[in-house]
Every structure is written in C-alpha cells, then in structure tokens.
Amino acid sequence: MAALFLRFCHRKFSAVGISRLPKADNLDTYQLHSKLKHGTLLGVFDLLREYSSGSGTTKFDFTDLTSPHTWYPKARKKRRKVILHVGPTNSGKTHNALKQLESSPSGIYCGPLRLLAWEVAKRLNKANVPCDLITGQEREEVDGAKHKAVTVEMADVTSDYSCAVVDEIQMLGCKTRGFSFTRALLGISADELHLCGDPAAVSLIEEILKVTDDDVKVEYYERLSPLVPLKKPLGSFWNIQTGDCIVAFSRREIYRMKKKIESAGKHLCSVVYGSLPPETRTRQATMFNDASSEFDVLVASDAIGMGLNLNISRIIFSTMKKFDGVEMRDLTVPEVKQIAGRAGRYRSKFPVGEVTCLHADDLSLLHSSLESPSPNLETAGLFPTFDLMYMYSRLHPKSGIYQILEHFLENAKLSPNYFIADCAEMLKVAAFIDEMPLSLHDKYLFCISPVDMNDEISSQGLTQFAENYAKKGIVRLKEIFTPGTLMVPKTQSNLEELESIHKVLDLYIWLSFRLEDFFPDRELAASQKSLCSLLIEQFLERLGWQRPTAKRLRSRNVSTSLSSKNVRRYL
Ligand SMILES: Nc1ncnc2c1ncn2[C@@H]1O[C@H](COP(=O)(O)OP(=O)(O)OP(=O)(O)O)[C@@H](O)[C@H]1O
Ligand SMILES: [Mg+2]
C-alpha cells in the first residue's frame, strides 16, 4: 500500500514539474514545541483576534515575507559586531573564528555538517572550554558548558551569546538548506557574529544586513599553502600514489574505482560519500588520515567538499560532470574549488596540494574553474516560520499542510534579496500524511524531518511512524524493526539497504527528540544504528583487496546476507 502511494506521489510530483526531490534536514523545532506547550504563541492569537475582529484597521498578510529580520526580536535588540571571514579554501577562516569562540565567555558554532559540529565540539572540549554537541539526532551535554557546537538547522535564536560562528555561510544560497543559514544570519543574538565562507557571499550579506543596524566588517584571507593545478592527467590507475583522493559522483563509480585501484595490488582505499552513515564517514576519513593505517588512498564524492581536514596530497577528478537530480551537468566553479581545496591542507602531512583529472579532456575545465572567481550570490533562502503557517491555518481551518505549504510557495512576497526555499521534499511528505488525524504541528514535524523520500525504505519508515503515531500515539521500534536481524551485507544492493535502514533509525531518533513521550525507544534505535554502521564498515573492509602478508584488520565472521525481502519485514 505504502509503495503504491509512493508511486502515486512520484507521478503527481512529476506532473507538476517537481522532479528534483531534495533532502529535508533536521530543523530545530524544540523552541516551537515548547512555545506551543507553554502557550507563548499568545501573540499569535492576539494577532488573529485583531485580524478577525473586522475592525478594518488591521490587515495582516501572512504570506508577506519581505521583512524577515523582524522575525527575530532578540537579535534586533543588539547592534551585533559582524565579522565576515572570507577567502579561498584552506585559508584559516574557520580556525580564526573558532579562536574567538574559544576565548569568549559563551558561544555557539553552527556548521553545515554533523562532522564539522563534532570536530568543533571536540576541539573546544580539548581546549578546556566545555562545549555541548547538538545536532538533529544527538545531544551530548557537558557539565557547565556555555558553548554549543550545532548543525545550522539547530541554531538557537532565543538565547544570548557573546560569540557565534556560522561556517560555510555561502550556503545561504542553497535551494533547500539556504533558509537555515539565513535564519542563523538574521536570528542569532550574539555580541559578535563570525561568518566564514566564500567571498561570493559578501555583497549579498552586506545588503541583507543593511536593515539590521549591525556593524559589518569584512576580513579577506589568502590560502595558507599552495594548490598546484597539474598540466598532466592521471591517465592510468597505475599512477595512483599514497595520499591521492579520486573524486567520483555515484556510489557505483566509487566502488568501481576502489576495486580497480585495489586490484592493482599497491593501495587500499577508504571511501567517503553522502549516504554512508556520518560516523562511518568519520572513521573512513580517520583511517585515511592515519599514516600507520594501510588505507592510503581515498575514493570520495563531493561529500568531502566542505571544511573537512584530510591528509590529501592530490585530488583527481574522475569526471567533471555530475548528475544533480535533474540532469548531468558540468561541475560549477564553486564546486570545483571546494573539492580541489581539500588537497594540501596547511600543517598536514602534504602541505603542498596538487589537483588534476583522470582524463586529459577534462583538464581545461578544471584549470579555467580554478582561475575563475565564484559568481556572486544574488539571493538567500527563506522559509516561513511555523508561527506564520499556524496563523494562516487558523484562518483557513480546512486546509491541510500540503495546501498551506503550496499557498506559501505560490503567494510568498519576498524582497529582492531572497528566494523561497525549494520544499518539494516537504510537499511530498505532506501529501503522504495529510489524510492522517494529526495536528498541524505534528504534520509540520514530519514534513521537516530528515527523511529521504527518494529512498523507498526511508519513506516507508516515515509512513509507518506517522501511521502508528496517528493511530496509537506511542511508536515502539520493535513493532517495525526486529533487533538482532542485521547482518554484514554481501552485495552492493545489500549495502544500499543497510544504509537505508540506518536512515530510518536516524529518523526515529530525530522524532524521539521532538516527540519524546511518543517515541520512547531512542536507546534501542541508537544501538541498532551504531550496529548498522559497524556492519557497513565490515563490508567495506572485506571489499578491500588484502595483501597476503599484510596485517589483517579486525573483522567479524558473519556470513549471512540481508535480503531485500528481509528489509521489508523490518519496516
Ligand atoms: N594560525 C594557524 N595556526 C595553526 N593552524 C592553523 C592556523 N590557521 C589555520 N590552521 C589550520 O589549517 C587548516 C585549514 O584551516 P581552516 O580549516 O580554518 O581553513 P578554512 O579557510 O576554513 O578552509 P575551508 O574553506 O576549507 O573550510 C586547519 O587544519 C587549521 O587548523
Ligand atoms: Mg572552514
């Protein structure tokens, strides 16, 4: 049934021209939840009363999003000192901003990736600055912490900080996640706000902050160690060396290259790509970084492109094209620069970075991209707050969340600095859950949850969770998942299924942080999730060619496989 509905939705969406279905991410609804719980949406009701009083004096257009800076009164009470740290990759932008954060009495770091938030929390705690780690799926609280490292969707716009850092700020131009960066930019109430990123974002940010009365200063950086574009392509995999990173844009290609390089008998490869569990990605990256490990080559997707510090000596683009969900297209200038910039990190084992392509035909695009400035960003993402949607729904009580979202998308009025976020993925979830007897708030939660609707198992997981929640209130993990049944995958498709199961468990944990009383099995989900990543890593180890004399890596002897049928049974 769920699968049928899924196919129906696919048809429905391609019919209205939404073929690209981006991944919704972990937006913070903690504050919203507590607002609803503690009745602090009172102002909303006042506004509604005023609106519906018929006095004719107040006309409030909820789709008017032309002044988003007014959504954050706490930040507007301050004249923030905003420092933009801009420059090429590997120029010390984040490092310098973090130094300020460390030396401030309280602060928050907001990054685009869980891995970056982890790195920052680790760095601060090591420097004896107690720091909490908060992502959509983790809460690691440290005694006495006045600092937080968070993923940008979790940026706290209700507390006061002396210092805040928003990393990779150029992502405010991202179609799907940009609005969370805009929210952090406008909403964080800090005496000092450090923004790190590409110079292409400077003029847009200056323009946006004209209305906030903040004091804005720009600091330009230079790359700390050289990056040399090579004139010769790699040509053959025989020319692979220790410290190389081959970049490919599909899982299939990544594994094909790993196999090809390893079968030559000289190197073992770590892999990093988007749908690997974050903890697996970290461990693969750590193994590659560790000089004593045998995994001396990395095969990765653009998942390595942001902020991570890896011991890469040379980046090799296996292709200069990628499929972006709609079509095969050339890599953009910022994409090429971000990825190439991973080579030769300052103070790493390979301080001079090199970059080339596998094929000679691709070299001209590589060289021209590296020489071009990134085009200036023109608009930042924006998305209506839940409060606005809630008010709208009070006036149109018959509308489901699908209609409300659609209405906002069609009618939103924006100033020229903004675009409305692409919420095709949210609409898809909305179509699934609109018929269920759930409150608007619950529907909104499911819509913004980190479900991958392109992944059938992940979307079935969401449907089951929402259905059980609507029917029974409480959602027990064991009703849809049998612990003890996960096994080491044997094939690529088994691996894909395990990655999907990991996503479903991750979704359960995400929901458990927001609907705590109704999703009580967080610990079980977390332990099964860790098991998933362990099993995936065992698969990766076994996949690797093993030198007969080399010391073998630890690996468990589990021989059963995970069939597609089994997976359906779990969910
Ligand atoms: N002054 C410094 N002293 C010691 N190490 C530094 C210094 N500046 C930067 N580094 C180190 O250099 C590396 C690159 O710095 P950083 O990550 O800040 O660069 P970035 O400009 O933010 O790069 P990206 O655009 O890729 O995020 C890091 O490992 C960082 O710790
Ligand atoms: Mg950085």
Automatic annotation (TrEMBL):
Any one GO cellular component localisation term in the record: mitochondrial degradosome
E.C. numbers: 3.6.4.13
Names of the cofactor(s): Mn(2+); Mg(2+)
Subcellular location: Mitochondrion matrix, Mitochondrion nucleoid; Nucleus
EC category: hydrolase
Keyword Lyase: no
Main subcellular localisation: mitochondrion
Family: Belongs to the DExH box helicase family.
Assembly: Homodimer; in free form. Component of the mitochondrial degradosome (mtEXO) complex which is a heteropentamer containing 2 copies of SUPV3L1 and 3 copies of PNPT1.
Protein name: RNA helicase
Taxonomy of the source species: Eukaryota, Viridiplantae, Streptophyta, Embryophyta, Tracheophyta
